[in-house]
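Feature request, filed as a ticket because there's no other form

It would be nice if the structure record came with a short human-readable summary line next to the tokens. Right now we just get the raw output. Example of a typical job, pasted below so the devs can see what we mean:
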Amino acid sequence: MLLMPVALYAMGQDRRWKTDDILTLKNGTTYAGKIVQIIPDSLYKIEILGGSVIAIPYANVIDIYKEKSNHPRHQYQFDTTDGAYHLYTPYSNFYRYRPRGYFVQAHLHTVVEYGIDVINGYKFNQYASLGVGVGIHAYILPFPLTDAVTGCAGGYVPVYLHFCGDILRSRITPYYSFSAGYGIGIKGFYQYSYSEFGVAGSYGRTVTLRGGAMGAAGFGVKIYNRHVYPSLGAHLTVQQASFSRDDYQPDGSGGTSHSYSGGGGAMIIPSFDIGICF
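Raw output as currently delivered:
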């Protein structure tokens, strides 16, 4: 009994097994499968064929031994993330639903919003994961189509909290997500500088962006496999922003400058995203 934990560790070094652990109880009942946990003087946990885990009181077990599996089409695979064996079918791809743990996500965005996000966080259960995200985005044509909003088009760095969850506990599951934080304006798109032939000097426009609060909601589909979880989704981002603009126009006496301020409203940005989670 004292050497059983060592034996279990050694078993874990081989990723597939064709033998079963056999537990014999005092009442004559036997269980065949893989022992996934032993709590000394308390209980054994054994995963039987089909994936169910049975807890058996320690005192009820009178014998433990191994024998060749009676189900050669089924094997068990050791998972280092939770230290347990999971049913493996050689004729299909192995996967397991990940109920909890640390994660890193990367998302690529397209359509009206172009950019990339990286999110680090922790999954507490099927329905609740919380992380911190940072990205770099280019908002090309935000809505509504007004001068006050389109003048805020440009590059932003969003920093936010990200909450998400799975709707189903299955290999392919829909998911939902919500984000809230602050978008830092870094570069406006509607700025230029050029020379006009025959006129002294050059025309110019400089746009300064000011960011603000941002929020997003998304929905999509996630596919679980052993280590990497791809996803495909769509989401809607709302970004508060404003801008100031300085225009320069040359004339015969040298030139004139004009300053404008605008925005202060909300940009609405729809997009699709392709994600991958580790």
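Something like this underneath would help us a lot:
The helical segments are 4-12, 147-150.
Confidence is low (pLDDT under 50) at residues 5-16, 89-94.
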